[in-house]
Design brief:
The complex is a heterodimer. By secondary structure, chain A is an all-beta fold. Helix content of chain A is about 0%, strand content about 45%. Chain A is built from no helices and eleven strands. In chain A, strands 2, 4, 5, 6, 9, 10 and 11 form a seven-stranded mixed sheet that branches. Chain A has a four-stranded antiparallel sheet with strand order 1-3-8-7, with no helix packed on it. Chain A is globular. Chain B is mostly beta strands. In chain B, the strands form three sheets. In chain B, strands 2, 5, 6, 10, 11 and 12 form a six-stranded mixed sheet that branches. Chain B has a four-stranded antiparallel sheet with strand order 3-9-8-7, with no helix packed on it. Chain B is globular, with a radius of gyration of 14 Å. Classes of the chains: A mainly beta, B mainly beta. At the A-B interface, strand 5, strand 9 and strand 10 of A face strand 5 and strand 6 of B.
Amino acid sequence: NAGVTQTPKFRVLKTGQSMTLLCAQDMNHEYMYWYRQDPGMGLRLIHYSVGEGTTAKGEVPDGYNVSRLKKQNFLLGLESAAPSQTSVYFCASSPGLAGGLRNNEQFFGPGTRLTVL
Amino acid sequence: AQSVAQPEDQVNVAEGNPLTVKCTYSVSGNPYLFWYVQYPNRGLQFLLKYITGDNLVKGSYGFEAEFNKSQTSFHLKKPSALVSDSALYFCAVTKRDSSYKLIFGSGTRLLVRP
């Protein structure tokens, strides 16, 4: 099993450009999450999904959109990139309600390093 | 509002010595608590969790953590540090709702010197 994979690994954008980050998991997990990691701030939740076709806002959703058209994929979009969105983005997945909280630790992808000039 | 505090940006320890990485939390109700580790240029890896029961939780790579409800703390410990333990450690908490969202602390960098 590949676990959680993220595409691309690195990207440089100019202000105003758009892009989509792809997250894929092969563990049949119901729940998926997008975080951003900034120095000294830990990880902050951008958006999450509790199942195919559902999405919800996290702590810092502004400037981002997401879609979960297939259970195994969770896409994060930036419609008009800004320098403040320079960060490392992590995707995670977990079993969800079927696993119960005792078995709901999140599994993380390797991250995407995004620089917006 | 829920929050997690990791008061130390960095912890330095000599190889073979015990280590402690501190974490305190603020959350209504009974929390679920986690520790994750991040090695350079990698994603986060799960270390251990406290759900209920015994206050001393054992996890991966010889790490353990002690849940203290009265002090609202969940400190990570290891009896004998290894150079390979050097990494960034995150404490996290989740409320007992169906979203299982995690609130992370700011992270503590652990440096183990030979």
